[in-house]
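Project outcomes to date are best conveyed with an example. Our students and postdoctoral researchers have been running inverse folding experiments weekly, and each run begins with a structure described purely in tokens. The record below, which covers 142 residues, was selected by the lab manager from last quarter's runs and is presented without edits.
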């Protein structure tokens, strides 16, 4: 399975450590893939900054590299506020490139979980049960 990852530009300096660890361990959004199945990252980029202009073009390169799915990184979900465009990004990429889009990568870190629980953004996080995991897993991704 080959995938591309698009991250929120607010985290443009992120080294990708949590996403890559989750990929390797099949945690969070990667739990949908079997550990027996090789998982290869064929593209990694940012959205380009609000309102996400790079989402229009960057999947082209990922698909040329063989991407069979694109993940929108967990940073889109846990940012303050969560990205208001993530559902549109998913619709757009799936319509234009005919490959599935998964919202999320690594489990939600506990520190974000605790703050969002106090905010209206909890409704957004609560949509993604595969990212919520359990407290031990969330703490492991703090
Ligand atoms: S909030 Fe959304 S559009 Fe804005 S930088 Fe992050 S991913 Fe891109």
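After processing, the design step wrote out the following sequence:
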């Amino acid at each position: 399975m080959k995938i591309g990852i698009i991250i929120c530009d607010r985290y443009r300096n992120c080294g990708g450590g949590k996403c890559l660890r989750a990929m390797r361990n099949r945690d969070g959004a990667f739990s949908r893939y079997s550990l027996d199945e090789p998982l290869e990252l064929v593209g990694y980029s940012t959205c380009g900054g609000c309102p996400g202009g790079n989402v229009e073009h960057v999947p082209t390169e990922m698909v040329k590299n063989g991407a069979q799915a694109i993940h929108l990184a967990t940073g889109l979900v846990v940012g303050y506020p969560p990205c208001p465009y993530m559902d549109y990004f998913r619709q757009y990429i799936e319509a234009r490139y005919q490959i599935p889009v998964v919202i999320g990568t690594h489990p939600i870190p506990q520190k974000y979980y605790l703050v969002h629980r106090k905010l209206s953004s909890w409704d957004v996080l609560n949509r993604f049960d595969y990212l919520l995991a359990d407290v031990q897993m969330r703490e492991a991704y703090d």
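The helical segments are 17-25, 58-64, 74-78, 86-97, 110-116, 122-125, 129-132, 135-140. The longest strand covers residues 40-46. The training component of this project remains on track.
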